[in-house]
């Protein structure tokens, strides 16, 4: 798809992840990643309801939001965000830079009511398929704007190195924090894959991890192009995506 305009797509993309460090008992784990929705009041609530229905049809074990849910205050999007209440899989999110700008507190309150848990600077251990999976999340790098500290080393030092671990971090550059800790997989967004070619080339200069799968030392990093738009509602040669991961 070369040219994409507006909110008319459900671009699910099946991606197999071959992790040498994940425990074999979690083989077959299915994760949907939602990134960079950039929701405004102009996005139809029916689109989000259909999105949730399609996600439920896939029957993932987890739904993970990797930031930039908002493009206006969450108070303007109560009905939109309530759509996520119908997600059947356990769901978690971290903030992106736009969420920080538009107000992370209201977002957290509304998402919590919808059953989507904020993982900013937190660790969660969840039981799936009879095994324990460790999730860790970082608030966005711009959290300091709201007086929010990111205790990166303190947080990561509390990770259990015996557990398979997934990191949610909006900006791919946060991969630079993981070298001394066990993080098997990092899921990020932020870049939109450049959104509009040839701006892709400029974005790539500032974001060396721009789109797709990378390996950084012992960690696999996936950078989603995201679902929404920043600025104009146009994508060119950087189509939106909803990654659906299967761990093997």
What does the model show?
It contains six helices and 14 strands. By secondary structure, the protein is an alpha/beta fold. The protein has a single domain (3-247), classed as Metallo-dependent phosphatases (Purple Acid Phosphatase, chain A, domain 2, 4-Layer Sandwich), CATH 3.60.21. The protein has a six-stranded mixed sheet with strand order 2-14-3-4-5-6. The longest helix is centred in the N-terminal third of the chain and has 14 residues, at 45-58. It starts with a strand and ends with a strand.
Distance between the termini: 28 Å
The domain tally reads 1
Q: What name does the CATH topology carry? A: Purple Acid Phosphatase, chain A, domain 2
**Major sheet: size, sense and barrel closure?**
6 strands, mixed
CATH architecture: 4-Layer Sandwich
Give the secondary structure arrangement, pairings included.
Elements lengths: L2 E3 L6 E6 L12 E5 L10 H14 L3 E4 L12 H5 L8 E3 L3 H6 L1 H10 L2 E3 L3 E7 L2 E8 L13 H6 L7 E5 L15 E4 L10 H8 L5 E5 L2 E5 L10 E3 L5 E6 L1
Parallel strand pairs: 2-14, 3-4, 4-5, 5-6, 8-9, 9-10, 10-12
Antiparallel strand pairs: 1-13, 3-14, 7-8, 11-12
Brief sketch in words of this structure:
The protein has 248 residues and is an alpha/beta fold. The protein is 20% helix and 27% strand.
Key descriptive features of the protein:
20% helix; 14 strands; Purple Acid Phosphatase, chain A, domain 2; 248 residues; alpha/beta; single chain
């Amino acid at each position: 798809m070369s040219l994409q305009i507006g909110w008319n797509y459900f671009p699910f993309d099946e991606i197999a992840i071959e992790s040498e460090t994940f425990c074999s008992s979690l083989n077959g784990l299915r994760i949907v990643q939602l990134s960079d929705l950039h929701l405004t009041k102009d996005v139809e609530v029916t689109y989000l309801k259909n999105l949730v229905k399609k996600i439920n049809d896939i029957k993932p074990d987890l739904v993970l939001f990797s930031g930039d849910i908002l493009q206006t205050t969450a108070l303007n999007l109560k009905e939109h965000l309530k759509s996520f209440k119908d997600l059947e899989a356990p769901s978690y999110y971290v903030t992106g830079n736009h969420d920080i700008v538009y107000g992370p507190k209201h977002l957290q309150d509304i998402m919590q009511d919808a059953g989507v848990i904020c993982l900013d600077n937190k660790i969660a251990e969840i039981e799936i398929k009879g095994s324990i999976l460790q999730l860790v999340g970082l608030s966005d790098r711009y959290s300091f704007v709201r007086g929010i500290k990111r205790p990166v080393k303190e947080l990561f030092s509390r990770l259990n190195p015996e557990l398979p671990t997934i990191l949610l971090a909006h900006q791919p550059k946060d991969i630079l924090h993981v070298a001394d800790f066990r993080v098997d997989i990092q899921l990020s967004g932020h870049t939109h894959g450049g959104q509009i070619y040839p701006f892709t080339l400029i974005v790539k200069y500032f974001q060396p991890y721009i789109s797709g799968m990378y390996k950084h030392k012992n960690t696999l990093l996936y950078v989603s192009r995201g679902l929404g738009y920043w600025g104009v509602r146009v994508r060119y040669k950087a189509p939106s995506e909803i990654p659906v991961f299967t761990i093997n």
